[in-house]
Design brief:
The protein has a single domain, classed as Jelly Rolls (Sandwich), CATH 2.60.120. It starts with 5 loop residues before the first helix and ends in a 20-residue tail after the last strand. The longest helix is centred in the N-terminal third of the chain and has 19 residues. Helices cover about 25% and strands about 20% of the residues. The chain is globular and about 50 Å long. The strands form three sheets. The chain has a seven-stranded antiparallel β-sheet, covered by helices on one side. Strands 7-6-9 form a three-stranded antiparallel β-sheet. A two-stranded parallel sheet has the order 11-12. It has nine helices and twelve strands. The model has no long low-confidence stretch (mean pLDDT about 95). By secondary structure, it is α+β, with helices and mostly antiparallel strands.
């Protein structure tokens, strides 16, 4: 794990900065949270898991042309424990979601060569806690497994749009094209490098862009809920008895999981049908 200058590390872990970033822009990041070698190992794991998922029916969810999402098991990703015990990860979760936060999802998104621009969207409808109560009760942490370039089709995110009311829009997730100028005006492109860690509200309007390179852009996703979050209903976080015994209690206490004798194929439930229509 790489170390940051002490003053920068203190700034990144300041609760006011964290809350201001996620309640303001809707996304924050920590540069060089992990070593580049650690990220290379993550890429290796994702490549193996994607190949396995594509070989079984329902193992990988299409999120547009040449773009897949796969929910996986924490113990199949060697870096999961490193993320769950990273001080910045814990500080961000506690600052936004409270001390009883729960990890509810481990998966990865892989836009391959030929992936198209996605429509602007959020990952699920805004819950009442956010739409009415103006409170975030979930977060998505992203870890890139490659050095992102413009040609790879980086994430575009429209800052501050986690508060937009999409009631009446398709799935309450896909804004009308009449609002696209608003998102283009607020849009920033994210070009994370190996070892970077970010946290965002999945309600902030965003889209993956066209991958015009000859390389995939794999990204690990870890979803975390506050006690009143309901995203665990769409996921199946499994751990074996042996893996559970190997985890520190402070990690197990922050997971929503099912203990199994042997890992079972995850039935992918977090479908986003609107992403299969790039020209939406």
């Amino acid at each position: 794990m790489n170390s940051q200058p002490e003053d920068q590390a203190a700034h990144d872990s300041d609760v006011a900065q964290i809350m201001g970033g996620l309640y303001g822009d809707g996304i924050i990041g920590l540069k060089a949270a992990f070593s580049r070698e650690w990220a290379d190992q993550l890429r290796e794991d994702i490549e193996i898991l994607l190949e396995e998922a594509l070989a079984v029916p329902g193992g990988a969810l299409p999120r547009g042309p040449q773009r897949y999402y796969v929910e996986t098991h924490p113990e199949r990703v060697r870096g999961c424990l490193d993320i769950a015990t990273h001080p910045w990860f814990a500080t961000v979760c506690e600052a936004i979601l409270g001390p009883a936060y729960k990890i509810v999802e481990v998966g990865f998104d892989v836009p391959g060569p030929g992936a198209a621009d996605q429509p602007w969207h959020r990952d699920f409808p805004s819950p009442p806690a956010t739409l009415i109560g103006r409170r975030l009760n979930s977060l998505a942490f992203n870890v890139t497994a490659v050095d992102t370039t413009l040609e790879m089709g980086p994430l575009e995110i429209a800052l501050g749009t986690q508060w937009d009311d999409l009631t009446g829009c398709p799935s309450a997730m896909f804004p009308p094209k009449s609002l696209y100028p608003r998102y283009r005006e607020r849009m920033v492109r994210k070009l994370p490098q190996r070892g970077d860690l970010s946290a965002r509200s999945a309600l902030t309007i965003h889209r993956g862009t066209a991958n015009r390179s000859n390389r995939s852009r794999p990204v690990l996703v870890i979803g975390v809920d506050a006690p009143d979050g309901t995203n665990a209903n769409h996921h199946d976080l499994q751990i074996t008895h042996a893996y559970a015994a190997s985890l520190p209690p402070r990690v197990l206490d922050h997971m929503t999981y099912r203990v199994v004798d042997e890992l079972e194929q995850v039935v992918q439930a977090h479908t986003i049908a609107g992403l299969l229509e790039p020209d939406y």
